[in-house]
């Protein structure tokens, strides 16, 4: 199993989500992320303080079976792409084990509902 961490533009979220559903990746988590990178955004002044450093993005966390890794990464590369600086990053980690709490299934079986 692999964990894919993708940092993407907020504006691409719906497109990425729809593309993942199209390839049957129906479960992932996401959270707001702030960082500093090569992208330069317009200066925002809020209550007299200028903010030009923090870049707002979303981080997606997706755990997939090994056989679904390449198609998931390809999907993210295509759907999150704009061609501009700041499109994001993708990282892949190895997952040693997983369990579904409700059924106590482990390994690959814990990732998806049997259909």
Structural overview:
The chain has 115 residues and is α+β, with helices and mostly antiparallel strands. The chain is 18% helix and 32% strand. The chain has helices at residues 13-22, 69-79; strands at residues 2-8, 29-35, 44-46, 49-51, 55-64, 88-94. The strands form two sheets. The chain has a four-stranded antiparallel beta sheet, covered by helices on one side. It has a two-stranded antiparallel sheet with strand order 3-4. Helix 1 runs antiparallel to helix 2 (69-79). The longest helix has 11 residues, at 69-79. It is elongated, with a radius of gyration of 17 Å. The mean pLDDT is 88.
Structure described in brief:
Helix content is 18%, strand content 32%. It is α+β, with helices and mostly antiparallel strands and 115 residues long.
Q: Based on the coordinates given, report the CATH architecture.
A: 2-Layer Sandwich
Mean pLDDT reading? 88
- Low confidence ranges: none
Largest sheet: 4 strands, antiparallel
Number of helices: 2
By DSSP, the count of extended strands is: 6
Radius of gyration: 17 Å
Count of discrete domains: 1
- Bulk shape: elongated
Structural class by helix and strand composition: alpha+beta
Order of helices and strands: EHEEEEHE
How helical, in percent, are the residues? 10-25%
User: What is the CATH C level class, in words?
Assistant: Alpha Beta
The oligomeric state of the chains shown is single chain
Taking the alpha carbons of the first and last residues, their distance comes to 20 Å
Strand order, biggest sheet?
Answer: 2-5-1-6
CATH topology: the name is: Alpha-Beta Plaits
Strand content: 25-35%
């Amino acid at each position: 199993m692999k964990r894919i961490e993708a940092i993407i533009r907020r504006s691409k979220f719906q497109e990425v989500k729809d593309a993942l559903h199209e390839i049957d990746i129906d479960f992932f988590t996401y959270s707001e992320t702030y960082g500093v990178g090569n992208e330069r955004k317009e200066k925002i002044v809020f209550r007299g303080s200028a903010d030009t450093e923090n870049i707002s993005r979303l981080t997606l966390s997706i755990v997939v079976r090994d056989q679904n890794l390449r198609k998931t990464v390809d999907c993210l590369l295509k759907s999150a792409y704009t061609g501009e600086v700041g499109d994001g990053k993708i990282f892949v980690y190895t997952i040693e084990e997983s369990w579904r709490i409700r059924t106590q299934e482990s390994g690959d079986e814990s990732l998806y509902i049997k259909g």
